[in-house]
Amino acid sequence: MDEFQYDNRIVRDFAIATILFGLIGMLVGLLAALQLVFPNLNFDLPFLTFSRIRPLHTNAVIFAFVGNGFFTGLYYSVPRVLRTPIWSPALSRFHFWAWQAIILGAAISLPMGFTTSKEYAELEWPFDIAIAVVWVSALVNIIMTTINRRVEHIYAAVWFYIASFVTVAMLHVVNSVELPISFMKSYSVYAGVQDALVQWWYGHNAVAFFLTTPYLGLMYYFLPKAANRPIYSYRLSIVHFWALIFLYIWAGPHHLLYTSLPEWAQTLGTVFSVMLIAPSWGGMMNGLMTLRGAWDKVREDVVLKFMVVAITAYGMATFEGPMLSLKNVNAIAHYTDWIVAHVHVGALGWNGFLTFGILYWLFPRLYNRPLYSTKAANFHFWIGTLGIIFYTIPMYWAGWVQSSMWKEFTQEGLLKYPNFLETVTALKPLYFLRSVGGTLYLVGFVVMIYNLWMTALKGKLVPTETAKAMPLNAIWHAEKSEYWHRRLLERKPLALTIFSLVAVAIGGMIEMIPTFLVESNVPTIASVKPYTPLELQGRDIYVREGCYVCHTQMIRPFRSEIERFGEYSKSGEFVYDHPHQWGSKRTGPDLQRLGGKYPDSWHYNHMEDPTSMSPGSIMPRYGWLLENDLDTTTTKAKIKAMQTLGVPYEKGYEHQANADLVKQEKEIQERLKQSGIKTAANKEIIALIAYMQRLGTDIKK
Q1: Which of 143, 146, 528, 689 has the fewest CB atoms found within 10 Å of its own CB?
Q2: How far is CA 215 from CA 13, 183, 253, 346, in A?
């Protein structure tokens, strides 16, 4: 028998990071929610404005809270399942400190406006490189640990861990191919339709392989442990795993239904999304059926309460997702708060509650004493559940209200609510209720922090645990009747890794290669020209300020949208957009046909004080744009980058670009002067106006 030790210190460290960054992420989320009711809560500070802190909230919750939660469970369960210590403690420490450094970098850079504008992948190129390095180092550590195991077969939890690492690495690298122009600024190498497809191939599967499959691995380990029951069905776990990772990767295009994405790609996304119900619910049933004969424990054990609600929320979210991918349902829900509710059923219920259950189970074992207060844990469970209800129901309601008001016509055939602001002001009470739900959930989280703190304080960390097991070569044997999956894959971690990569790569390749190579997928439009240097600078300000968070630039071919916003969007309009700005949520109106709709003075006044142009608006003031000087030292590098990416500026134009920029600045300055507005020509607001006045003007209705 070999004697070895499990390291609990790395588990403890990731658990503390989970709690700390979870608190920060949820506080930022609550602030963002309140700003939709009280926009002045940004205190006129750019780095506290909704459009900048919303990406901070999503990144903090996904990669800091859920990510650290996954690593907490990973470093506890993998050695015990494989009966061997983690292969490299040094890589484990590197993983921990480097991941926290990336999170801190995100917390600083995103509010400062350094963003790629790609949802869930907003971090700029230096962070992208760091993420890839850290992620691959952790993958190597897990695979080597698996190779050095002291058990014959690799348990289901480890399958999900390995597939998660492999797929996220692939997604991250492909989506983050960008051309740097400075230390914290880059342009996506993809444009328009292709960029949108790659982004939502990544975005949907970031949900799949960062928020779902890793936590399914945690479920397969911690639920049987907490219930003291074996997993319900080994064969169901096999079907669940392979069907899930193969089907999930195809589903990204369902985020782009009715957009300019080719119809065949939209249809593929819908078909595979609907098929996802089967493996998703197979996994849910495998979890819930594990508790057969143990439901009496659920009544008494707070850990199992959290886990049961988490698995139920997973089932709800994975039923709703395929339903939302049906075109008739998507036409109602997309761009509305319904999607916000759907996402938070998964985030608060599935990820949040499973994390809480794992932490409540782990801390007494890490600190060798019972949980400080079971009553406090039960209070956390009930107030957290109430928080989820108060959050999601108002958002579902808001989604229905939005869609109904957007689409309603009078008997005369006119839009009943032609002013988009009418739909916004109608939602304020529901936004307030959402913030109440978030507050309740946060209160429960704070109670958990106190409970776990007191548990640790009254106990003492068990830094290592000694275990014994026979070496693999002493126990290896094969039986003729052995199930094929065990014989071919569960004994061979490298084969399992390669097959997982192949399973997840197929769908992405079939969707992306034709979209990139077959020209008919993105027909060009002769009248669509590259942005002028000033418009390009203005577009970068639009990206920096996070305008895509609240505004779309994609008019779907619906009568209601064409009547409200103008001619529906064509794929050829976006061929020079690096990256695309289609957006995914309409808190404000679509801007695709904004150019020429209002005079320059309207935009100037609107950014200075939105309520002066739109009484009742919940948009914050962007007064700093009127004061900041435009940095034209970057113009040359930006034009050269665009030329590298295939945008047809004339050769050598980068040397003329700033002269043209100044000329256009003075034209806008003069128009503002005629409207009674005096401002310097070199202000950021001038560039932003230039960009907004260009939007949608390249094609005729």
Answers
A1: 528
A2: 19, 35, 24, 11
β strands within 383-506, DSSP E:
464-469
Domain residue spans of the chain: 2-511, 533-700
* Calculated CA dihedral for residues 461, 464, 467, 470, nearest 10 degrees: 160
Neighbours of 85 (CB within 10 A): 18
Local structure of residue 209 (DSSP, 8 states) = I
Cα–Cα distance, 665 to 680 (Å, whole number): 9
Distances (CA, A) of 142 to 8, 145, 213, 615: 16, 5, 16, 56
DSSP state of 119: T
CA separation for the pair 72, 74 (Å, rounded) = 5
Using one digit for the tens of pLDDT, what is the confidence trace for 7-21? 999 999 999 999 999
Is 204 labeled as ligand-binding?
Answer: yes
Axis-axis angle for helices 9-35, 428-458 (nearest 10): 160
Q: Using 50, 70 and 90 to split pLDDT, how confident is the model at 479?
A: low
Nearest alpha-carbon partner for 491 in 202, 151, 259: 151
Q: pLDDT tens, 606-617?
A: 999 999 999 999
CA dist list (Å): 646 to 198, 576, 578, 640? 18, 8, 11, 10
Do residues 258 and 558 make contact, with C-beta atoms less than 8 angstroms apart? yes
**CA separation for the pair 686, 677 (Å, rounded):** 12
Kindly state which CATH superfamily the domain 533-700 is placed in: Cytochrome c-like domain (1.10.760.10)
Determine if residue 153 is labeled as part of a ligand binding site.
no
Neighbours of 225 (CB within 10 A): 15
206 touches 128 (CB < 8 A): no
- DSSP characters over 52-117: HHHHHHHHIIIIIIIHHHHHHHHHHHHHHHHTS--S-HHHHHHHHHHHHHHHHHHHHHTTTT----
- Is 38:503 a contact under the CB 8 Å cutoff? no
| Angle at CA of residue 456, ends 450 and 460, nearest 5° | 170
| Residue 611 token pair | 């309520």
pLDDT tens digits, one per residue of 181-204: 999 999 999 999 999 999 999 999
Annotation-wise, does 342 bind a ligand? yes
Q: Torsions phi, psi of 180, nearest 5?
A: -70, 145
Residue 411: count of CB within 10 angstroms of its CB:
6
Q: Flag whether the pTM goes above 0.85.
A: yes
Q: Which residues does 303 contact at the CB level (< 8 Å), separation at least 6? A: 226, 357, 360, 361
* Spatial CA neighbour of 387 closest among 444, 441, 430: 441
Q: How many CB atoms lie within 10 A of CB 389?
A: 13
Q: What is 1-21 written as a DSSP string?
A: -EEEEEE-HHHHHHHHHHHHH
Q: How confident is the model at residue 484 (pLDDT cuts 50, 70, 90)?
A: confident
Domains 2-511 and 533-700 share a fold: no
**Gap between the Cα atoms of 346 and 340, Å rounded:** 10
Non-local (6+) Cβ contacts of 175 within 8 A are 118, 121, 198, 199, 201, 202
254 labeled part of a ligand binding site: yes
Both tokens of 695, joined, read 């939007």
What residue type is 334 in one-letter code? H
Instruction: Render the burial of 196-210: b for 16+ CB within 10 Å, e for the rest.
Output: bbbbbbbbbbbbbbb
List the structure tokens of 682.
């070199």
pLDDT of residue 490: 85
What single letter denotes the amino acid at residue 491? R
Average per-residue pLDDT for the chain: 95
Class of domain 2-511: mainly alpha
